[in-house]
Amino acid sequence: MTPPAVPDEILGLRRSIDNIDAALVHLLAERFKMTERVGHLKAVGGLPPADPARDRQQIDRLTAMATEAGLDPEFAEGFRAFIVAEVIRHHERIAAEYAAGHLEGDVPALDTFA
Ligand SMILES: O=C(O)C(=O)C[C@]1(C(=O)O)C=C[C@@H](O)C=C1
Predict the structure, then answer these.
(1) Where is the Chorismate mutase domain (predicted)?
(2) Average pLDDT in the 58-68 region?
(3) Nearest-angstrom CA–CA distance, 105 and 30
């Protein structure tokens, strides 16, 4: 049996969903450009990859924002933690490259629109 046709309203909503997904991908790419540079600056400055005090600030801020926006704050925190775990992996890789002498003290320039 063929499934019923997808209603026009769903097709319209899917176009909006595609636009939002595109924005999220571009925003995430911009965020990773910034954190990449943070990773270099931390490695050169002898700072550790993770900063629990900064994490705490972000959790408090995003939890309040998510609640205000009607987004499940536990989901928002899971999403933040997922991204930051990847950032910390990048920071660790960058620090290891400096430690191994594969990178010099020249922190790459920031190439971003934000
Ligand atoms: O702000 C920093 O110090 C970062 O390294 C960036 C960032 C983040 O992705 O927002 C990542 C790791 C830290 O634990 C806190 C924040």
Answers:
(1) 4-95
(2) 98
(3) 23
